[in-house]
Amino acid sequence: MSQLNLLGLYQPNATLLHRISPGIKLTTIMVLSIAIVVVREAWFSVVALAVVCGAVGLAQMSWWALFRSIRILAIGLALLAAFHWWQNGPEHAIAVVGGLAALILASAVLTATTPIDQMLDTITRALEPLRRFGVNPDAVGLAFSLLLRFIPDIGERAFEIRDAARARGLDRSVRAHMTPLTIRVVAHALSVGEALQARGIGEDERPGQR
What we know:
By secondary structure, the protein is mainly alpha-helical. Helices cover 74% and strands 0% of the residues.
């Protein structure tokens, strides 16, 4: 299994979480996100993280594969925790990093237990009432789909660049990692934009144009 794929790959199974409707799961993550931001307490982040860890077990996801898939994010969270611990103390660090970790794991559970097409259909239907205000539900759904596919792609490219830098003895060079990664990410984003434009997505209708 390629690394970071757990953040964008459906894993078929017959667990309870697989049978729950995408709308309920998306709503749960939305409520969890708002609660973490509003409460901002260490105890709440710990409880949220424990509940999400229980969901990982309920979905029968491999902990080892999950760790491998998010280890870059885990390193970033560890550095963030150290910074907040130093600046504001342990409780603040736990509140911030624990909440972020809970949301990351919740997103992994969502994508592992929900087919992308069902998720996009749910999002599109939920946004349909906003069409009268100028929101394009189809475009939002497509953007969400591209995001889910883009995250694993960035991870794969990062690991390829890391291996190439290590082979040249530049594994500790930030420039050797970030420069090619930035170029590849921008190139990929441009190609996606061109593909969307070719399909007529994102083009504004102007008066007098057909």
